[in-house]
Structure formats: C-alpha cells, structure tokens
From TrEMBL:
Pathway(s) of this molecule: Cofactor biosynthesis; riboflavin biosynthesis
Name of this chain's protein: 2,5-diamino-6-ribosylamino-4(3H)-pyrimidinone 5'-phosphate reductase
Gene3D superfamilies named among the record's database cross-references: Dihydrofolate Reductase, subunit A
Organism: Daldinia eschscholtzii
SUPFAM superfamilies named in the record: Dihydrofolate reductase-like
Length: 318
C-alpha cells in the first residue's frame, strides 16, 4: 500500500523552531568536521495518556496520528542523526528515514534559498530550514536524511539486507545505520552489508557501567561517550526516539542535563498495564526523601490532529 504524504503546516514548523538545532550539517558547504563539542540532543517520542510507548516489549505500536507523524518526520529532516536502542530496532524494524512530502522548488528559487524543496511546500519563507538540498548531478530535490544510530552493545540486532532501514538506504531513500557496539570484532558479513550501503560499526572501548534497572551482565555506555562518538562522526545534532530504556536512562538525574530539547507527542489513548512505560529512576535524596526526577520549562503546547505535541527544555535542578 502506498504511504500517505506527510505534510506539516507551516505554523507548526514555526512554533517548533525555538526547540530545534541549527539546520542539519549535511547542507552543502557546511563544516562537518569532528569536534569536542557535544551534539545538540533532542529527546522525542510518542506516548499514551498513561505514559506508555508501546503495548509491550517487542511490540511496535502506533500512537501518532498522521499530523503528529508528519511533525516527527519534520524533526528527522532537521537533525543529522536519529538514535534508537537495539530493543527498538528488533521490535520495530524501523525505517528511521524522513518521509516528508517534497516537491521541486520553483524555477526562480536558488538551491540555497530558505524556501527550497520541503520548505516551499510548508510555506516556510520566513524561517531558515534548508532541510532539502539540490543533487547537483541531476538537479533533483532530495530531502535531508538523518543518519540512523543504533545502540547495540552486544550485537543482538540480526539485521539483513531485507531490514527496512537497509532497503531504504539501497533505494536512496535514507541512510544506512551506524551501530554503536562493545563487540571488538563484529561479523564480517554484517560489516560488509553495512559498508556497502554507507553504514558501519562504531566500536566503543570505553568502560561500561551498570545502569539502574539493568541486569548484572548488561553493562551500559556512558551517554557522554555515546554522544562524543556521534559528534566524532561530524554529526552535530541527534534526535533520540527511544525506546523505554533509552528514554528512561536519558531522563535520569545523572543524564538529563545532556538533553537540549524535549518534543513529546501525546496521543489520547491509554495502553494499559504491561506496556513499555516512560518512567525514569526515582530521585532519592541523601535524607531518604524523594523529589521529582526532571521537569520541563519553556513550554510550547501544540495540537496536531487528535494529538498534543509538548515541547520544552529540561529545567535546571538547582
Ligand atoms: N512511542 C514511541 O515513540 C517509541 C516507542 N518505542 C517502543 O519501545 C519499545 C522498545 O523499548 P526497550 O525494550 O526499552 O528498548 P530500547 O530501544 O530502549 O533498547 C534497549 C537496549 O538498548 C541498549 N542500550 C540502551 N542504552 C544503552 C547504553 N547507554 N549503553 C549501552 N547499551 C544501551 C541495550 O542493549 C538495551 O537493552 C518497543 O516496543 C518500541 O516499539 C521505541 C521508540 C519510540
Ligand atoms: N513519533 C512516533 N509515533 C509513534 O506512534 C511511534 N510508534 C513511533 N515510533 C518510533 O518511530 C520508529 C519507526 O520509524 P519508521 O516509521 O519505521 O521510520 C520506531 O522505531 C520508533 O523509534 N514514533
């Protein structure tokens, strides 16, 4: 079945702007050299009214309506990278590409104009988006595609050439993933498959720690190490989509300061008990009392179809 076109109203794009990183660095002429600066981090996901991401571990669950889905794809057009944990890669077989409707710019529009491509479609004349670029070899318009990043320390994801993200990369409709792992020698066949499509394994040697709610044989990378590895690839912004473990660890007291922006789609539904929930580890103070883990500030609320999109920044904890 053909996918419906995803289009975001220009007013919604304008209201998102204060919550977004500068335009993606794969725009022609931009400096994408590695740097010690961390990337801009956007935490974004869709949740139910009972704070659930999916009906259960391993279950792909649609929460976003068409309009908020278009918003998520607009975010994908505005970040250099898109990140999920291996639990999500296995459960969802995700595409992790941008499928916003794109159309050719008017003849008089220059390739570097702010209104080119998707920007023209969205009517974004007054803001700098540049999420579409002109392919200089054949003059076609291509929407900016984010680089998928999968965190898979033990290489649990048995991807093949038929995995959705690989098929999209082969078709030129997305990018092949970079897989962050602790396995020093990944299997040659997987390595070749990735390399043929422009993806790769990123092997992290840094010591891993035991995270909260994590089994004793399952170590975790420090998020600062993950983000440094991403930035080392010249990727200046990353949207982190999930799943449950990834979101809960990022929202924890020790990591939430790494988040620059939070954009949450709230769907008017309850998924119920047994779901995968967003609920970070509790803060227990030195005297044994508890306090909120994190709170948003600089809020924007935006209805999109039947969903509500909530944007904000993590408030400082002092
Ligand atoms: N509604 C939404 O927006 C989204 C929903 N989901 C749903 O979430 C569910 C998957 O969530 P989870 O099972 O919690 O899996 P997950 O996607 O959070 O992956 C967890 C795994 O990622 C790896 N990992 C994560 N952080 C790591 C770190 N710091 N260092 C090393 N390894 C790390 C570990 O192997 C861990 O077992 C699925 O049902 C999926 O459909 C996923 C993304 C978005
Ligand atoms: N924004 C949003 N709304 C939902 O209802 C979702 N289930 C998700 N899931 C995330 O999107 C990924 C799927 O991406 P593709 O459509 O296959 O490109 C999935 O893996 C989750 O990260 N997101």
């Amino acid at each position: 079945m053909a996918e419906q076109s995803l289009v975001l109203p220009s007013i919604a794009a304008m209201r998102l702007e204060p919550h977004l990183p500068p335009s993606p660095s794969t725009s022609p002429g931009k400096d994408i050299s590695p740097s010690s600066e961390p990337p801009f981090v956007t935490l974004t996901f869709a949740t139910s009214l009972d704070s659930a991401l999916s009906l259960g571990p391993g279950m792909r669950t649609t929460l976003s309506g068409l309009r908020s889905k278009a918003m998520t794809h607009y975010l994908r057009s505005r970040h250099d990278a898109i990140c999920v944990g291996v639990g999500t890669a296995i459960a969802d077989d995700p595409g992790l590409n941008c499928r916003l409707a794109a159309e050719a710019p008017p003849l008089e529009t220059s390739p570097t104009s702010d209104t080119a491509g998707v920007g023209a479609l969205l009517g974004l004349a007054s803001i700098s988006t540049k999420q579409s670029v002109i392919d200089e070899t054949n003059g076609t318009v291509t929407t900016h595609q984010p680089r998928p990043i999968v965190i898979d320390p033990k290489l649990r994801w048995d991807f093949t050439s038929e995995s959705k993200v690989m098929k999209l990369a082969r078709a030129g409709k997305g990018l092949a993933p970079y897989i962050i792992t602790a396995v020093p020698n990944p299997p040659e066949d997987k390595k070749e498959l990735l390399q043929d499509l422009g993806g790769k394994f990123i092997i992290l040697n840094e010591p891993q720690s035991f995270g909260p709610n994590v089994g004793s044989d399952n170590r975790r990378f420090d998020w600062r190490t993950i983000l440094a590895a991403v930035r080392n690839e010249g990727l200046q912004s990353i949207m982190i989509e999930g799943g449950g473990e990834v979101i809960n660890s990022l929202l924890s007291q020790e990591n939430s300061h790494l988040i620059d922006s939070v954009i949450i789609t709230i769907a008017p539904t309850w998924l119920g008990q047994g779901s995968v929930f967003v609920s970070p580890p509790r803060n227990v103070n030195a005297n044994g009392s508890s306090s909120a883990v994190a709170r948003l500030t600089n809020i924007t609320y935006m209805p999109l179809g039947e969903d509500l999109v909530l944007c904000g920044n993590i408030a400082s904890q002092d």
